[in-house]
Amino acid sequence: MSTLSRLLSSSLCFSLLLACGPIPEDTASAMESQTAFIEGDDSHSQGTQLHGTSVEAIKYADAAVMYEGSRRAAKLLLHRGTLVADMTLQQMGTTPSLVACLQPTSGPERSCGFTLAGQGVCTPGTQVTLSSGTCSGTTGSCSGKPILRVCADEKPCEHQGPGYLGNGVPTPGSPLECTIHCPKVTFTCPASGIYTVLKAPMASTQIDWSAPVKTLSAPAFPAKVKRLTGQQLIGARMGARRQSELYFNTTLEIVDALNANSVSIPESPGIWDSSGDTFLYRVKVRPPPTTGAPSVDLCTTGVDPVMGWGWSVPLSGTFSNEGDRVESTEHFTFACDPGVLAKCYRWGYKPWLDGISSGGVTMAHWACTRMARADYCGNGTSFTQDGTKIRPWDSMNPSIIPAPQSPPPADMTFEAGWRPEGPACLSHWRWQHLPAPCVQLNPPKYDQNGHITNDCRLYPTMPRCSEICDSAQEAKQHYQSIVFNESKSNQLPQP
């Protein structure tokens, strides 16, 4: 079939939903890439893709980041709509000051007899103050006459040498307060946001001493990890799980990252997410080295054919091929735009708005993914065409998408109320033109006069009554729907 023939075939299928039937995700991806630039999209349009990629889940653990030219172990986390990595801090190299003194010596300038107190993290350019207590010998404070030395980054340093940030020494007190004030040091946080602290007794021969180092402001000292975010994650690698497969030797790598408030889209309002709370990632799939295969983009389905790749957004939890969401502390999801996981996030249903525990927004996002794919069967099968226009809204308080204040356009009709498991009810119009024989709801039954005899709104106690709703109010009142939509019909007009 020629390219033109395929294009015409796709366009015809775009109009004849009943004739085309459900579209498998892999088949739909090819059509989506062809039709996306023909009809385009708006801020509320359906799609056939769920993940937008065959990669189903990403591991939080066993990741690696690129830091100062070296690959370092890290654990991934989600903070709002941003992926972060906690990189374990470590001592990088050594210095003469960490070697035992061969002869008695004293003072903060010496180059022996120090030990590592730990490492801390801070905001570059800010002032940091470290203390080892107030009066020597009091509870929680230093004892003896300890000294402190602060070095930039993860490297120990010498007094006034490369990386040296400052020192603290004990100072005389007054008889009314204490004999000796414990050492304190103030320094400017280095560009890396990491500092290393060494401690020692004032005299190398001193045995009884202690220096419980702490900061006078957050974050606390010592720190175990350095948190990386945003473009600091470029080069990070992580393990992936493909749909319907066990783990195998495939790795994902972040090759670019941008705040979503700087990513333009051809849909209203023109910005992916203006809040500033979301980062988008360009991710490559790295096949096993033994295959010799090149890396490919994670997101290619339905994207701008000129660009050839798409952004992904991180989401908590995982989604199966059937569209079922599972909470997980081991995996998260990279949702490729324009898959509906990303679409529903972009429309405002951001699961992290619930806080620590999943709640109403998470459930609304899940219900939205059913609505945005016209998943009438609640099993992951899409019964729509990419780009089909819809007007969604929800019953949340306050609403994320408010109810429309104007009647639907002439080519749009109220379609359904939705819950996370699928449609909770369907309108008369949708029941009359339903292409999905697998829907779990009960179909209307008509008498000889064309009246429905099993309408749940009229006969709620009737066994196998039909879940009918012709408005959002009915969908919420009778069937506890949480999102609703009006939809444009994909059928050709009757002659």
UniProtKB/TrEMBL annotation:
Pfam families in UniProt: ADYC
Record keywords, A-Z: Signal
Chain ranges of the ADYC domain: 230-432
Signal peptide residues on this chain, from the entry's feature table: 1-19
InterPro entries referenced in this protein's UniProt entry, alphabetically: ADYC
Protein name per Swiss-Prot or TrEMBL: ADYC domain-containing protein
